[in-house]
Every structure is written in structure tokens, then in C-alpha cells.
Amino acid sequence: QSAIVDSVTEQELLKTDFQKTIKANVKLPENLKYTQLDLEDGIGGLYGTDASGQNEFAMLGTEKSATLDQIVDYLNNSQGALPQVRNGDFPNRPVIRKITPPSGRGISSIQVIQGKKSSDRMLYAAIVERSDRKGTYVFVMKAPTSFFDTNEGMLDSMLESLQVK
Length: 165
Prior knowledge:
There is one protein chain. The chain is α+β, with helices and mostly antiparallel strands. It has a single domain, classed as 3-Layer(aba) Sandwich (Protein Transport Mog1p, Chain A). It has four helices and nine strands; from the N terminus they run H-E-E-E-E-H-E-E-E-E-H-H-E. The protein has helices at 8-22, 68-76, 145-150, 154-161, and strands at 24-25, 33-36, 43-49, 56-62, 96-99, 107-114, 121-130, 136-144, 163-164. The strands form two sheets. A seven-stranded antiparallel β-sheet has the order 2-3-4-8-7-6-5. A two-stranded antiparallel sheet has the order 1-9. Strand 6 and strand 7 (121-130) form a beta hairpin.
């Protein structure tokens, strides 16, 4: 992983470059320090954490179309590439919450799955498929249960802000 960038300007550039790489615009969570993830070829990744280290967010984007099973397998076997995910954190047959994609945004499906709870922290992933079949996006959030209780709509509003290019 590269060093976390501190200045506001560098943070904005990092987010802008990432969105160009994944060919999508999205309103990313505020108040996090972001760093680019070093992932395999063809996958762009951005990771952010707050000052406490308790609230973690990552977003991945690839130009490949991927099934839910492939995504779960990738997340569970990422060998530390995603700091908030440990091997086996997501069940092989996860309970899926489907969200109706907003119209006109270039998205065909959104599926949210829950990972293992550890130390009062919840783990969620949202898998988003482009309607043109030219890519998949994955949002991964890990935070204390209380954070999700008070910010219940955060993931949904982030997903609603996604606009593919």
C-alpha cells in the first residue's frame, strides 16, 4: 500500500484519479483519509479510514463482469489486499439484499451482503453491475454497529450517487 495522503488537495486528486480509472462518479464517504490499493491488474481500488481506525471503506472497480460467487471468493482470498477483510469474512452463500438501481445511471443490479461481525464491528459489501456489462464495482464498509445504526442510509445514498461513464 502506498502512504496515506494528507493534504486536502492530494486527497481530492486521489479520489478524482480513482473515479477516472474505474469510469464512474460516486460520492465517497467524507472524513476519511484515502490511499490507493495495490491490487491485481485490471482492478482499481481505493481504501479510506477515519482517525480512530474503526470506520473503514474500500471501493473496487474492474472492467470485467463478475458474478456474486466470484466477488465473494475474491474478497475472502484477497490475502490482505483489502485491510478490513480477513480470509473467510464473507459466507460462501451470503444472504443478499437487492436494491433497485436508480434509473439512468448505467447500473443493472445492486446486491448487498453482510460479512462476519467482529469486536462489535459490522462488515458489508455491495456488488454493483454495470448495465453495459463492461464492469463491476464493489463497495466494502466495516464500522462499529453503532455507526451503522446512526448512518443507516449511508451505503444506500452512496450507491444512489454512482453514475457510470
